[in-house]
Every structure is written in C-alpha cells, then in structure tokens.
Write a structure and sequence with these properties.
By secondary structure, this protein is α/β, with parallel strands linked by helices. It has 2 domains: 3-185, NAD(P)-binding Rossmann-like Domain (Rossmann fold); 195-285, Orthogonal Bundle (N-(1-d-carboxylethyl)-l-norvaline Dehydrogenase, domain 2). Helix content is 46%, strand content 13%. The chain contains 12 helices and 10 strands. The strands form 2 sheets. An 8-stranded mixed β-sheet has the order 3-2-1-4-5-6-7-8, sandwiched between helices. The chain has a two-stranded antiparallel sheet with strand order 9-10. It is globular, with a radius of gyration of 19 Å. The chain starts with 8 loop residues before the first strand and ends with a strand. The mean pLDDT is 96. The structure holds nicotinamide-adenine-dinucleotide. Nicotinamide-adenine-dinucleotide binds at residues 12-18, 35-37, 41, 93-96, 100, 104, 121-123, 144-147, 240-241, 244. Nicotinamide-adenine-dinucleotide (NAD) is lined by residues 12-18, 35-37, 41, 93-96, 100, 104, 121-123, 144-147, 240-241, 244.
C-alpha cells in the first residue's frame, strides 16, 4: 500500500481527542468517518469542532466556505461495521483501557479491508498489547497525538514488536500529509517519549505535594516561572483530563506492580469525586472563576 491508497480515514471515538483528530484530517482534504457509541456523542464532538473553526473564521484564518467544506468531509457513523468497511486507515481514540481497545481492534480487523492500517492513539498502551487481538499485527502501530489535536503539532509514531517498516513509513507520511510532525520510536515502551519525560516531572511534583513541601498552585508557579513551561504539571493534568492520567497510572501499575506507579492520593480523590479537570469544570483548579482558583482537597 502507498500513501495515495489512503483515501478514507475512520476515527473511532469522538471524545476530546478523536473529534479533533477527525477534523484535522478533514481540514487536509481527507474524507473522514467518525464513529462513537451514539449519535448524541458524535453530534457533541462535531459541535466542539465547529466552535473551534468558528474562531478561525472570526480571526480571518479561514473562510466560512473552507470551514463548511472541511466539516462536510466528516461523516458521522454510529455503526462501526459500516464505517470500517470503507476505511483504508483507522485511528482508534476510545477509552484508555486495554480490554475495550482489544475488542475494538478485533472488530476492526473483522470489518476493515485487508490492506487497512489500524493505529491506536493510546497514551500509554503499547500496540503489541492491542494488535494481538487482530490477524494483522504488521499493519498496526501507535499514532499518539497530543491534546488539543487541532493545535498540537507533534505525533509520536511507535513501531510495535510486529509492526512492519512499511506501516511505520505510512503512518509517518500520513501524519505529515495532515499537517502534523511525526517522531518515530523504533522500539515500543510504555509512555513513549513525551509522557515518560512528563511522568518524571509530574511524579516529582506529586511527591513534593504529598510531602507537604508546597501547594500544587505553588509547584505549578515554580515550573511555569522557573522552567518557562507554559503550564505547570497540575494545570496540565486538568487540561488533559485527570481520568486520563489516573487510568494510565493504573495500567502502568498492572504491568510493573511498582507502588510508585499507583495514582497519587490527590489525583485519586478528585477522579473519584468526578472532578476530572477542565472538561467537568473542576479538577485541581475550579474553572467557574476567572482566573481559575485552586481547589481544596
Ligand atoms: N486527553 C488527552 O490529553 C489525550 C492525549 C493523547 C492521547 N489520548 C488518548 O486518546 C484516547 C481517547 O482519549 P480522550 O481524551 O479523547 O477520551 P474521551 O473520554 O474524551 O473520549 C473517548 C470516547 O470514546 C468513546 N468510546 C468508548 N468506547 C467506544 C467504543 N467501543 N467504540 C466507539 N467509541 C467508544 C466514548 O463514548 C468517548 O466519546 C485514549 O486512549 C487516551 O489515552 C488522550
């Protein structure tokens, strides 16, 4: 298969990541099928995309006609089988848990054309853990985007144990064609590049918080003003969704059994309360105020 054989992209999962990934591909001319569990979720995902593009139109970065054309390239399809039958390239962006992802890949394998490539946007799960649910492991890879996909330029392309060179090349080529910059990991490992570096930073930040050395707001301030990061680790956790970090740590712990990989108390408490960060209006910070205010435990 060559890059020109990729004519239709299916994105599975229309949440924070999937809806915008679909939009990014459509903005670069690809017909995209967007799948999720219900028409309501799909509509919500597309409303979010329209709100983002409305801002671009208002700023003169694109015309209304360009926006309408790009939005029109996305077909909402709650029936996975129907969408998969037409797809040459599938990006899975469903919940960050191994079993649902394996089940999703097994269904995609059954429904997609034989040459189709299947990639996962998982933040931490390695493709070899997922691809064994299919009979096409050579055509499976990680394609890891960053939030928000309509803004963040980096995509990590990860070669799994059985991923072919051809697949890695195609995923990297497609990444460029849809306006993103790939980095290639020739070996898979949990957390890839960026999240491993981030985990080291966030782990230290949670440790300092748990030791009572400083408040999370002051740790954020220190990282922002001292290291010139645009957001401290707690603001970034809120931005990405606290449940994402929480589940990623539980998955890491299931593999390593190292207590250091368990979710920190301050994170667990908030996730169990349903305070998942910006998307629910509250996480480490309360977003009902301007500027957001630090929450209490
Ligand atoms: N949020 C981030 O910052 C971020 C960054 C990079 C990668 N990721 C990864 O992207 C994936 C999605 O994350 P998200 O933040 O968009 O999560 P999300 O919870 O916002 O969205 C997940 C969506 O998947 C849907 N879904 C669940 N099971 C499904 C199934 N079987 N078929 C179809 N749809 C299904 C849900 O209804 C939901 O709309 C995860 O693997 C996550 O690790 C997230």
């Amino acid at each position: 298969m060559s890059i020109d054989d990729i004519k239709c992209i299916l994105v599975v999962g229309a949440g924070q990541m999937g809806a915008q990934i679909a939009m990014q591909a459509a903005l670069h001319g690809y017909p995209v099928i967007l799948n999720d569990l219900s028409p309501d979720i799909l509509a919500k995902g597309m409303n979010g995309n329209r709100a983002q593009l409305d801002k671009r139109v208002a700023k003169g970065q694109m015309t209304q006609a360009q926006m309408d054309e790009a939005v029109g390239r996305i077909t909402l399809e709650p029936d996975l089988e129907k969408g998969a039958r037409r797809a040459d390239f599938v990006i899975e962006a469903i919940v960050e848990r191994l079993e649902p992802k394996r089940e999703c890949f097994a269904r995609l394998d059954a429904f997609c054309p034989a040459q189709a490539i299947l990639v996962s946007n998982s933040s931490t799960l390695m493709i070899s853990q997922i691809a064994t649910a299919t009979k096409r492991a050579a055509q499976c890879a990680n394609m890891h985007w960053f939030y928000p996909p309509l803004v963040m330029r980096l995509v990590e392309v990860v070669k799994g144990k059985e991923t072919s060179e051809e697949t890695v090349g195609l995923v990297a080529a497609l990444t460029k064609k849809i306006g993103r910059e790939p980095v290639i990991l020739r070996k898979e490992l949990p957390g890839f590049l960026v999240n491993r570096v981030l985990r080291a930073l966030a782990g230290e930040a949670y440790d300092l918080l748990e030791q009572g050395v400083a408040s999370f707001a002051d740790i954020d301030k220190a990282v922002e003003l001292g290291l010139n990061h645009p957001m401290g680790p707690f603001k970034l956790a809120d931005f990405s969704g606290l449940d994402i970090g929480y589940h990623a740590r539980l998955e890491a712990y299931a593999v390593t059994r190292d207590p250091k990989d368990l979710p920190p108390v301050a994170l667990e408490k908030r996730v169990k309360r349903g305070d998942l960060g910006r998307k629910t209006g509250k996480g480490f910070y309360d977003y009902s105020t301007v500027p957001p205010t630090p929450t209490q435990d």
